[in-house]
Amino acid sequence: MKHSVTLDKERCRGCTTCVKHCPTEAIRVRRGRAHIIEERCIDCGECIRVCPNKMKKAVCDPFDIINNYKYKVALPDQSLYGQFRNTGDLNLILAGLLEMGFDMVAEVAEAAEYISMAVRELLEKNDDLPRPLISSACPAVVRLICMRFPKLMPHLVPLIAPFEAAAIKSRKLASEASGLPPEEIGIFLISPCAAKATATRYPMSLENKVVDGVLSMTDVYKELLSAMKNVKDPPPKLARSGPIGVGWARAGGEMYALPDKKCIAVDGIENIIRILEDLEDGMLPPVDFLELDACNQGCVGGVLTAENPYVARAKIAMLTKQIPESENKAMSPEKFAMQMELVHAPAWKLDDDFLEALKKAARIEELRKQLPGLNCGSCGAPSCRALAEDIVLGIGNENDCIFRLREKMQNIAGSEKADDYLPPPFRRGKKREVHDDESQ
Q1: For 107-148, how does the pLDDT look when each residue is reduced to its tens digit (9 = 90+)?
Q2: CATH superfamily of 354-426
């Protein structure tokens, strides 16, 4: 699988900031450059967010890809509505997309309302489903659970994501409106994050792709500002979503449709990992529904958005109070059911042979005990255990640890001079006295 999160190795300074923040330990620094372990990446975008050198980015399609199709449909993610400070008119934003060259606009927010009503029905009528149900709307969270928390996979809502539902419905409507065959219709998601960009190319719960291209929300936003100025006043009535669908853009938005249920909303990938660990360990109180957003503040905090996430969240909160309730009617959950069963994707598999894997696990634990346990990241791995694993798997070396290197240098240079090979905070030799004349 080709991930949307990529890095520019030429610009990498090898600072290990991304290594320390990656929630799945998918990044290593070797020979002064960062490397991504593809099997462990969930495209959460955390490395893009923290990289001080801006050498990581999310790859989307160029805008002119829409010209490859005779009929073009825009799928604006609901977080797009939070990017504009000077307008609360959803119709103006959607009409601006038509001015940019699209033939039809299909709101992801409208599909989100259908999914919300379907989730509510599942909670009320399907007692056999485990509790809490976990939202399956965030692709990064779904990949994280399939990779790291396989026991919790049955808790995932067995429904496709709103953007996938919007794509399926809009292709049918566009074919009817244009008279063109489905293959000549292009469906383009305006995405706020790298995880959705990857999910459009490699869907986890659909048999085939339903989106033909993914556009960066930041890039579209820049052009959309100009296009909106050309929209005649008043703009045509295009918006079909209401407060429930638009509210999905911010953390806690999915809970808006479940006022009578016990729900917990968590945003931020590290916070999500902690809540999933508590759920796996049986430490959570009785809850009906878990809303999990990998990005801080929800989708408005995605790495491809233009507006400050806190400002955008406030904007979405204001919109949900201003716009009228939609006239969308509930649909059966079966209409949005996953077409394929999610599968466990183990990223920490040591060996295909079980006995060999046990031997490697024992060797990793032995090495971990020999390492200092500081988890300083100087070796280019996120923790001492990760380095031990790298050594056993043949992608690391014991000399990558500066403390193990110091021990070897003691035999060559003597115990005092060996400290010269360590950064000052880790030196253990005799403290050097500073004389008055040196300090002046």
Answers
A1: 999 999 999 999 999 999 988 899 999 999 999 999 999 999
A2: Electron transport complex subunit B, putative Fe-S cluster (1.10.15.40)
Domain boundaries along the sequence of the chain: 5-58, 63-336, 354-426
Nearest Cα neighbor of 123 from 235, 261, 31, 19 is: 261
Identity at 373, one-letter amino acid code: G
End-to-end CA distance of the chain: 60
Q: How far apart are CA 206 and CA 212, in angstroms?
A: 14
- Four-way CATH pick for 5-58: 1.10.10.10, 3.30.70.20, 3.80.10.10, 3.40.50.11270: 3.30.70.20
Q: Whole-model pTM?
A: 0.90
Condensed to tens digits (0 to 9), the pLDDT of residues 153-168 reads 999 999 999 999 999 9
| Number of DSSP helices (H) and strands (E) in the chain, helices first | 16, 11
Cβ atoms of 116 and 257 within 8 Å: the answer is: yes
Half-sphere exposure of 372 (CA within 13 A, CB side): 17
At the topology level, CATH places domain 63-336 in Rossmann fold (3.40.50)
Split at pLDDT 50, 70, 90, the class of 366 is very high
Give one word for 45, left, alpha or beta, with left for phi > 0 and alpha for psi -120 to 50: left
